[in-house]
Amino acid sequence: MLDQVPLGGLQWPLEALALLFLLAGLMLPLVQWSTLPERIPSHFNIMGRPDRWGGRWVFIGFACLQLFIYGMFTVQGHTLDYLAGSGLPFNAISFLLLWTKLVIEGLFLYLIWTMIRVARAQAEKANIVLMLLFSALLVVPILLIRVK
């Protein structure tokens, strides 16, 4: 169970990966902004097909949401306290928050990449298997944590 495993060694690689996903998700539309089509999918149905469209501004909303989620999980997971050397233990709850942040930022990156590909007609829909995999990745650590 996760409460019996020293998790501190996982903390910084996972934090770095979450930050990488965040930065990539912010930069991907930014570096391609001038070549993006005006019509961007903003929602996908249960089968992965786009069912709502918007302008390029959709990426601004995504960026705000990405930053907000990253910030909230960083604060609630005490990442800043760990950086300051507060000596707080990195426990199962801290790991769960960090893992959730990592998976959500990875999901955002995938969705942004997919939105760009669908807008450019390089893909027809989001990969539903990958969406289910992201959902499963969110749940797996919860199943491993023993509730006392």
From TrEMBL:
Q: What is this protein called?
A: DUF1648 domain-containing protein
Domain of life assignment: Bacteria
**Membrane-traversing stretches:** 12-33, 54-73, 93-116, 128-147
Name the Pfam families for this protein.
DUF1648
InterPro entries given in the database record? DUF1648
Q: Which UniProt keywords apply?
A: Membrane, Transmembrane, Transmembrane helix
Keyword Transmembrane in annotation:
yes
Coiled-coil residues are none
Sequence ranges assigned to domain DUF1648 in this UniProt record: 20-66
